[in-house]
Amino acid sequence: MATLTNVPTTRLAILDVLPDGFLSCRARDLHLLLDGPTLIELPGKAEPPLFVSILLHGNEDSGLGAVQRVLHRYLDEPLPRSLMLLVGNVEAARQGLRRLDGQPDYNRIWPGAPNDGKTVEARIIADVHARAVDRRVFGAIDVHNNTGRNPHYSVVCDLDPHTLGLAVLFARRAVCFRGIPGTSTASFAGLIPAVTAECGLPGHAANERAEQAKQAQTTVQAVLEAVPNAEAFEAGFESVFNDLPEHAQTAIRHELALLPNGPVRAASDADLVRFATTPEGAELVKTWGRDAGRKLATVRARIDRMLLSGGDMEAAVEWFDQLTSAEAKSVLTALAGGR
């Protein structure tokens, strides 16, 4: 492990724009743009923001690649959701190491750690944590790599539906772990949905092959694009969901826990016209914009799979027909991917 020398006093910088060159910068070169731990708060069209932490371990660089790819998509337009991006151990990243001698582990100093607040770095992280909680962030994603050729998986410290919903966006495998206090994900448990995204082996060469960063990129982008008024959506969906027959609830929960199975052929213009004959359909076609054909096709494909799954789906259809326009819109939005 390298020795900590000639490192400036650790402090948190808060920026409201990306530094020039950030989107093409390698982890080893971030010290040329950032003086140390940096919180970048970018505005978006929807609130509350998404919180993403990267490089809490300096040699785990998939998160940087994932965020760069997502932000490249929005160079000429606003982010669909505000973003709080924490770039962690810049000095360790400079040398390609998890941490430097004399530094604490940046993923063992979050609130709840045994030495909570007793180092400069821990106090900085506590400030970041408080800021995220104060803004009631939509979710927290901490992106890491690990040392083995493991499949991608999530780590969660809570089993509430919102946390599991966030986890399944990244991978169908999730590990519930409560053994190490002071991690980012553990610090948010019970406060906001939070997951650790484990992306396999680190390294620029691996990231260039795209597999290490691609799923993290997909997850960050999916949450940024999630339904703009999250609280209204959740209230609308959950308020009517419990009236479903039990077997129908099971089928729908199973379907909503899965990502769509690959691309679907977009619905035709005639299909969209028919769909828009109801108030909720017309509003969704307008909201979905150029994605309306794909969204409607996704809804139909998911409904077909649920009908084939058995259970009392006939009762579910009757239940849907009795929903108000706002309630039906919430259900259709969920089936389309929650956005």
Written account of the structure:
- This protein is α/β, with parallel strands linked by helices and 339 residues long.
- The protein has 2 domains: 212 residues, Zn peptidases (Aminopeptidase), CATH 3.40.630; 106 residues, no CATH class.
- Helix content is 42%, strand content 11%.
- It has 14 helices and 8 strands.
- Strand 3, helix 1 and strand 4 form a beta-alpha-beta unit.
- The relative contact order is 0.11.
- The N terminus is likely disordered.
Topology:
Blueprint: E1 13-15, E2 38-42, E3 50-54, H1 62-72, E4 83-87, H2 90-94, H3 120-134, E5 139-144, E6 153-156, H4 161-170, E7 174-176, H5 184-188, E8 194-198, H6 204-208, H7 211-224, H8 230-241, H9 246-256, H10 269-275, H11 279-288, H12 292-308, H13 313-321, H14 325-335
Helix pairs in contact: 1-7, 8-14, 11-14
CATH-defined superfamily of the largest domain:
Zn peptidases
Residue windows where pLDDT falls under 50 for at least 5 positions: 1-9, 204-210, 258-263
How much strand?
5-15%
Provide the residue-averaged pLDDT: 79
Total strands: the figure is: 8
Here the CATH topology of the largest domain equals Aminopeptidase
Number of helices: 14
Structural class: alpha/beta
CATH architecture assignment of the largest domain: 3-Layer(aba) Sandwich
Computed CA radius of gyration, to the nearest angstrom? 21 Å
**CATH class category of the largest domain:** Alpha Beta
Order of H and E elements: EEEHEHHEEHEHEHHHHHHHHH
How are the strands of the largest sheet arranged?
1-2-4-3-5-8-6-7
Distance between the termini: 45 Å
Regarding quaternary structure, what we see is: single chain
Question: Number of folding domains?
Answer: 2
Largest sheet: 8 strands, mixed
Name the shape in a single word.
elongated
Helix content: 40-55%
